[in-house]
Specification:
With 169 residues, this protein is mostly helical. It has 6 helices and no strands. 1% of the residues are buried.
Length: 169
């Protein structure tokens, strides 16, 4: 039997395939070098100044960590702790606002009394503050009545009243 040998054309095709394979491997290796993951962090995270460490202490609260403990925490834990502390401050501010609003509402609904009005008998003259409060309540009631009257007039303009006698005419 004749030994198997490649013809000249087949040899050229095989060399071309090998050359393309080597070229592809070279491009792939270059692409692997170029596409290595190079994480970029924000300036804020970079200035936190932590080295790799762990905070695997049981019952460890990152939000209340000291400066020394924060230096040992990974950046991700410190960022989480900062976000958690910020959210806690927002919740505390909102709770304080609602508490102040509730107290103001309670105080505004109570009768205001000072030391002089407590000592006086009820039949004596009202204080200036009491008379101003009464006047304010009267003005609020008059304003509400006027608003209701204007609303009624406006409603009548949109839906005029029909005289029931007009049908008989």
């Amino acid at each position: 039997a004749l030994p198997i040998c490649l013809s000249h054309i087949e040899a050229m095709v095989e060399r071309d395939r090998l050359r393309k394979l080597a070229h592809w491997e070279k491009l792939h290796a270059q692409e692997q070098e170029d596409n290595l993951f190079h994480p970029k962090i924000t300036v804020y995270a970079a200035t936190l100044g932590a080295t790799e460490g762990s905070s695997e202490v049981p019952n460890f609260n990152p939000a209340s960590a000291t400066v020394a403990q924060r230096a040992l925490m990974p950046v991700s834990e410190r960022l989480y702790a900062d976000a958690f502390a910020l959210e806690d401050r927002k919740v505390a501010r909102e709770r304080q606002r609602t508490q102040i609003a509730t107290e103001e509402r309670i105080l505004s609904s109570q009768v205001r009394m000072n030391a002089e009005t407590r000592k006086r008998p009820e039949s004596s003259q009202p204080t200036i503050e009491d008379s101003l409060l009464v006047r304010h309540e009267h003005l609020k009631a008059a304003s509400a009545a006027k608003a209701n009257h204007l609303k009624a007039i406006e409603d009548r303009q949109r839906k005029p009243l029909i005289n029931p006698v007009s049908d008989a005419i």
